[in-house]
Amino acid sequence: MLTVLDCFCGAGIGAFGAKAAGFQTVFAFDNDPVSVRVFNKNVHPVAHVMDAKKLDVGKDLPFTDGVMAGFPCNSFSTSGKRLGVNDSRYGTLGYVALEIIRQKEPKFFLLENVKGLASKSHAEFFNDLKKKLGGFGYNIYSGLLNAADYGVPQKRERVIIIGIKPNLDKGFQWPAKAAQKVCVREALVGLSPVPDGVNNHYGFDLRNDEKPFAHKVPDGGNWKDLPLADQKAFMKNAFSSPGGKTTYLRKVDPEEPAFTVMSHVMGKHSVQLYGNRRFTIRESLRIQTAPDSFVFDDDIPLQKQYACCGGGIPSLLAKQLFESIRAALK
User: Fold this and answer.
1) Domain range spanning residue 60?
2) Helix/strand/coil (H, E, C) string of 96-152?
3) 269-301: per-residue pLDDT in tens?
4) Residue 119, pLDDT score
5) How far apart, in whole angstroms, are the C-alpha atoms of residue 288 and residue 132?
6) For residue 97, what is the domain's CATH number?
7) Quick one: 167 and 25 in the same domain?
8) pTM exceeds 0.85
């Protein structure tokens, strides 16, 4: 069985996909204790709380067949400050992943980050990253994948970089796209329409400022579908500010894939309402294609559970990517 080192592992939603593809994660790390706890409960008890900036790569990390690294996306996300490598907290963690690959020389690696990584704003870093990885002796395959094209009930665009040692590479091929997209309604079959608290089927309700208006927004709509007076009442001073702001009071169409599952679900500017409430934790995991056996202990604070749901490659897409890697290896 091929072994994997999972860097910035989060709660293990992507690692669960690697496991489903027949790979064994033998070591993982993240700086968030809750994520590590969830990973160890649901994937393998091999995750550790570690600060990536303080790693001694040679001593702290094992040699494995492969490396997976979804280095934090905050610095490159279009919904953030877009500081890139100038973000002192997160911006240089891509170079940490680079150093791990340089020292450990795995047979293959898989890197994942938000769409913004490949934008013009961060092109210098993105191209430098690929150039250095190629210089380490890998065939490099990079692409922008939308998870909804691969059977995931979620519009989630992510940059994926695959590297394989040339002497082991039969020619990597991206997974085949699904014949049709999976919608929210299909993904949530079997769950109670009213959250019943069973198996993490609970979550946040509406914000107070949303309560007078959410029921007036149609499925697939947003604040712009409100009567004009309600638009002004809800948006207040932002009503006259530039930009479409179409993510405000945004409601999912159950017959379409969901929007991207986010780590923070209570913000006003990045809303994803399902009917007149937010997705529950179980629904969020379903949309991330994690199985119902993937669970959170109920004593974990609700916002922390949501944060865990929002990170990582959806399990189904991760499974397909690892299967494609296996098929490419000699």
Assistant:
1) 3-178+312-328
2) HHHHHHHHHCCCEEEEEEEHHHHCHHHHHHHHHHHHHHHHCCCEEEEEEEEHHHHCC
3) 889 999 999 999 999 999 999 999 999 999 999
4) 79
5) 31
6) 3.40.50.150
7) yes
8) yes
